[in-house]
Amino acid sequence: MPDIRLHDIIAALGGELHGDRNTLIDALAPLDSAGPGALSFVSHPKYRQALASSKAACLIVPPDLKDMALARGACIVSEAPYLYFARLTQWWRKALDVQRALPGSQGGIHPSAVVDALAQVHPSATVGPLCVIERGARIGAHTRLRARVTVGEDCTIGQRCLLHSGVVIGADGFGFAPDGERWEKIEQLGAVSIGDDVEIGANTCVDRGALQDTVIEDGVKLDNLIQVGHNVRIGSNTAIAGCAGIAGSAIIGPQCTIGGGAIVLGHLEIAAHVHISAGTLVSKSISKPGHYTGIFPLDDNANWERNAASLKQLHRLRERIKQLESDAKK
Q1: Has residue 285 got a pLDDT over 50?
Q2: How far apart are CA 287 and CA 245, in angstroms?
Q3: Distance of alpha carbon 75 from its chain centroid, rounded?
Q4: Does the pLDDT of residue 3 top 90, yes or no?
Q5: What distance in Å separates the CA atoms of residue 130 and residue 135, rounded to the nearest whole number?
Q6: In terms of domains, do 148 and 202 share one?
Q7: Which domain holds residue 305?
Q8: Which of 48, 55, 147, 211 has CA atoms 20 to 30 A from the CA of 231?
Q9: How confident is the model at residue 102 (pLDDT cuts 50, 70, 90)?
Q10: Cα(73)–Cα(36) distance, rounded to whole angstroms?
């Protein structure tokens, strides 16, 4: 464990320190389980009770919890404790990598990886075990590919990206033309273009475009097990949770969030700053920012079946109401 003291953290990340600057920190930990050498954070007043009883050596807190934190010990005051903690985890990881002298922290290609002679991998990039980088692919500076990542031919990944194990970039999009009772394959002639500072979770797949590239813009964060279809475009700094599915040619604006298990149908357009709840089926374009939800509430099966049967009658009942209102006006 690196020899880290509170003054090292303040020097790197700033913040307003109250307490002994030479206090040794040996771990980052959740509030309720932090030990006497750990650093934790509190971002919301609802955790006041846990704050008061925490055994952590130091807490990162917002200004309105400063006095309460001081009553129990050392604290770092920040306007955004959660963001401060996120940056702390990054700094902590780098400190661990330096201490352990991890090869990945300095860039390099694992001996078991397969890299085509016509691919370009920046010297500072890290390519993990059993990765495959095909002809014409390009990997940017300080990008890290964990084990078993596949980057298809001519696909581009920007700088400072992180692709977790099992990610597949540039498999063929799902394109077939009907020919009687059989299907004729449409060759996928585009590629995938990924911007800078993108993170993609384990076993997520981003398909190559049919004629133009599938595009993932700067700062996008994709969770595990997401399917991104061909010719999709995801705007900058959008975040999508696990098991979501984005069908072909959908366009998702910047600064959006999409909850786990949500589905976006193909050829739709979603505006910037749209937030979609988990499990929602997006079946039409969304032109205005806001929070959208389309989930039928959970119920016991018998009630669910009755409600579902009632839904089928809604259109007929609507027409009856319209007729009754029309008759009442006469």
Answers
A1: yes
A2: 20
A3: 30
A4: no
A5: 16
A6: yes
A7: 300-330
A8: 147
A9: low
A10: 11
Bridge partners for 281 per DSSP:
263
Residue 108 has pLDDT above 50, yes or no: yes
**CA–CA gap between residue 162 and residue 223 (Å, rounded):** 12
Q: Tell me the per-residue pLDDT of 48-79, one tens digit each, with 9 for 90 and over.
A: 899 999 999 999 999 999 999 999 999 999 99
Q: How confident is the model at residue 328 (pLDDT cuts 50, 70, 90)?
A: confident
Please compute the mean of the pLDDT values over residues 82-103 and round it to a whole number.
82
Spatial distance between the Cα atoms of 107 and 122, rounded to a whole number of angstroms: 9
- pLDDT tens digit string along 124-167? 999 999 999 999 999 999 999 999 999 999 999 999 999 999 99
Three-class secondary structure of residue 24 per DSSP:
strand
> In the chain, how many domains are there?
3
Q: What CATH number did the domain enclosing 89 receive?
A: 3.40.1390.10
Q: For residue 19, how many C-alpha atoms fall within 13 Å in the half-sphere facing its CB?
A: 27
257-281: buried (b, 16+ CB within 10 Å) or exposed (e) per residue?
Answer: bbbbbbbbbeebebbebbebbebbe
Angle at 49 between CA 44 and CA 55, to 5 degrees: 100
Residue 262: what are its φ and ψ, rounded to 5°?
Answer: -75, 155
204, 150 in Cβ contact below 8 A?
Answer: no
Q: Is 230 a catalytic residue?
A: yes
Query: pTM score, two decimals?
Result: 0.87
Mean pLDDT, the chain, rounded, equals 93
Handedness of CA 171, 173, 174, 176 (dihedral sign): negative
CATH number at residue 259: 2.160.10.10
Answer for the pair 260, 278: CB distance below 8 angstroms, yes or no. yes
Query: Are 206 and 314 contained in the same domain?
Result: no
**214, 206 in Cβ contact below 8 A?**
yes
Any bridge partners for residue 240, and if so which? 222, 258
Nearest to 204 by CA among 177, 237, 171: 171
* Residues making up the chain, counted from first to last: 330
Structural contact between residues 132 and 153, judged by C-beta atoms closer than 8 angstroms? no
